Amino acid sequence: xxxxxxxxVWVSDITYIGTRENPMYLALVTDAYSKQIMGYDVSNSLSxxxxxxxxxxxxxxxxxxxxxxxxxxDRGIQYCSNDYQQLLKKLGIS
Length: 94
What we know:
- By secondary structure, this protein is of the alpha+beta class.
- It has one domain (about 10-90): 2-Layer Sandwich (Double Stranded RNA Binding Domain), CATH 3.30.160.
- It has helices at about 50-60, 75-80, 80-90; strands spanning about 10-15, 25-30, 35-45, 70.
- It has a 4-stranded mixed beta sheet with strand order 3-2-1-4.
- A hairpin with a 5-residue loop joins β2 and β3 (about 35-45).
- α1 packs parallel to α3.
- The longest helix has 14 residues, at about 50-60.
């Protein structure tokens, strides 16, 4: 797929940033074209809540709401959760 404009594809991922004593996870939504972080959340859990907060933040920053937008992830359990999938549908993101 050729990416030729901002907000054509958003990529979501989670990375571990904590310690054994204080586990923390950074959920990111990144624009594949510009590499800009559109949304993020730091949480002490791998539940879908942090990913959902990051996606909501990204949606608020969206500058091209009438353009088609594709969401890409590793299809981890957070991104396949009913809540996350319902939010993508509500936002009109493929």
